[in-house]
Specification:
144 residues, alpha+beta, NE0471 N-terminal domain-like, 2 domains, three-stranded antiparallel sheet, 5 helices, elongated
Amino acid sequence: MFAEPDEPHHRPHFYAYYQNHAAAISIDPIEVIGGSLPQRERRFVEAWADRVTSFTVVAPFTLQTVFNDGKEQVVDFDSVLEGDLYGPLRDEEIFKQVEIDPEVHTLVWPNGADFDPYILHDWPDQLQYMKKLAMSWKTDKVET
């Protein structure tokens, strides 16, 4: 970022380019403050910038998450806790050890499990995709 000489500077922002489109995107809140992008590409930029700001455990395997754009989402993880990475989170004591990673601003657990903030932000739209993945994690177990 840089300041324009002798001009008031916009709030902190970055630039996004797509083909012959360009937009200035403010950092907090994430929004277009100049220029334009096609809707699909604008959503990709917004998703890239999704961040979890807080959460509350509201039920077994369920978190109320709050995002930097003010959106709140109840995420019930029960149907996707499968496989070597996510399966251990079925232990409620391990599940409750969830934290927000200070670098990537998403939910993380001590065993390394995490979820993309974009997936969490749009959980109802992503749930079927996540359930399909979870089924593959369940069947990918290595027999010893």
